[in-house]
Each structure stands twice: as structure tokens, then as C-alpha cells.
Amino acid sequence: MRNNWLRGSIPALVTPLMEDGSLDENSFCSLIVRALSSGCQGVMILGSCGEGATVDRKTFEHAVAAAREVCEGRGLLIVSTGAISVDRVKENIRCAKKWNADAVLNIPPMYFDETQKALKDYFLRLAEFSPIPTMIYNIPSVTKNNVEASTLIELGRHENIVGMKDSSGSQIALQQVVQEMRREGFSVFVGRAPLICSSIQMGAAGSMTPIPNLDPSLELDIHRFLETGQVQKAIDLQMRVAKITTLFGYKKMPINVNLKGLMWALGLCEPYTAGFDPVLQEQEAQILKERYEKECL
What we know:
By secondary structure, this protein is of the alpha/beta class. It has helices spanning 25-38, 57-71, 86-98, 116-129, 140-143, 149-155, 171-181, 196-202, 216-227, 231-248, 255-265, 282-295; strands at residues 8-9, 42-45, 76-80, 103-106, 134-138, 161-166, 187-190, 206-207. It is globular, with a radius of gyration of 18 Å. Helix 4 packs parallel to helix 6 and helix 8 packs parallel to helix 9.
């Protein structure tokens, strides 16, 4: 297969920050080490929960450089390039290349509704521009543009578009792409944590969700149980994962706010966020921790 290297559990990591917005390198590297030591195939950084579109340029590059050092010889490094301007996306791709990332994850254009032809042309231009393999990140809840299955199938035949992360939640579309591209070696990753089990059973190459920020073993064990035919055990773990994801929408705040708040209460990183997102208060973080320990463990 063309992309036999691109599969398994590849966590979508948060980007731990200091109060001034700079990278908390120690916490960031600790998360990467824990994921790789647990058995994850690599990490995906600076995605939606990683706040790649809102951290400043210095912090973005610092994160890529730090991750490359930790991942060297141990696992894959995938860098999300999401940004509003095409120039910033290209800068992010250049940064990923500079630090020898294994692939970049490109989101659709944001804000304006685009046709499928426009989306296809956009991803093809980025694939031609990028000196390293590219992936498509379909996350219409953020970008407002959904890349349809037929468009993904066409794009997947480009030699430099090696896979996708699907956070659309459409199991029908995911299944269409998986089945059509199975022999093409196009790696389909599920990005919605509640759909890990069903997506892997449909033939997805792997998962790329925020769950391993809290516990890498959960996602890894779902993969392991499915591989060994222990389907009910995988389903039982999937139900735990589904409970965890309900915490991410606490008080209708963004996932990065709630996830970082919970991780702060668990001693994994500070709660500080990028851009205009609020910071979860200590009392709220403790409530999330109590719910996590009571409902999800």
C-alpha cells in the first residue's frame, strides 16, 4: 500500500501555553513522550484543539521544532497548517518542512462558502506547493465548508495527498471514501472520538482525536481489541470515550478551553488558551475533574 506508514492512533494534541502565550515546552514535550511511550504511531500538533490558527508565529514554530526533537526516530509528526490566509498556510507548510515533519494537515478555506470545485482546486494547489506529503482535514463545524466524499476520492488520487482526517461526523461519507480508496492506499483517519470504534470497523486507517491528551491507552486499546477480535471490549471502551467527550462541551465553551481546564486540574498543563478564548476558572476545572473521575474512569 502507498501509505502503509500512515495508520494507527495519532493523537491530536493540545498546545500547552504559558500565561504570556508562549509555549510551555516542558508540558508539551511530556505529552508527546507519554503518547509515543504508550504506543501511539505519532502525534498531530497545532490542529483545532491545538489552537494552531490562533497561536502566534513564534509559538507555532517553537511547537513544531520541539515536537520534531521529541518525535525524531520515535514516531510520526503531522503538523496542521490551518489559517485564514493562504499566505499563512504556506508559511506553516514551509515551517513544517524546515523541521522535517512527516506530513501536513490542510483544512478547507474558512468563512466563505465554497463550491466543491473551488475546494478541490485549493487542495490541489497546496499539494503541488508542499514539499512534504499533505493530508486533508475535513472539519465543517469550524470551516463551514464540507469536502464531499466524491471530492475527497478525486483528491486522494493525487500522489502528494496521502490521507485525510474526517471530523464531519458523517459515517456514510467516511465509509464511501474508505471503500473507494482502499486499494489506492489513501489513509482515512476518524477525528470524532465517539466514532473511533465504528470507523475502524469500517476500515479507517486510524484515529486522530483529543482523547489521548487525557489517556493514550484508551484509544490504543480500542485499536488493539478490534485487531484481536475482542469487539465487545472495544465497544465498552468506546462508551467511556463517549462520556469523556461530553465534558468537552461543558457550558458550551470551546473544546480547547474545557480540555485544557481539565488537564490543568489533572496536573498535565496550564489552562491558558490562545486568541480570545477564555480560560477556565479553577472551580470550573475542579468540577470537570470530579466528573471525569466519577463518570469516565
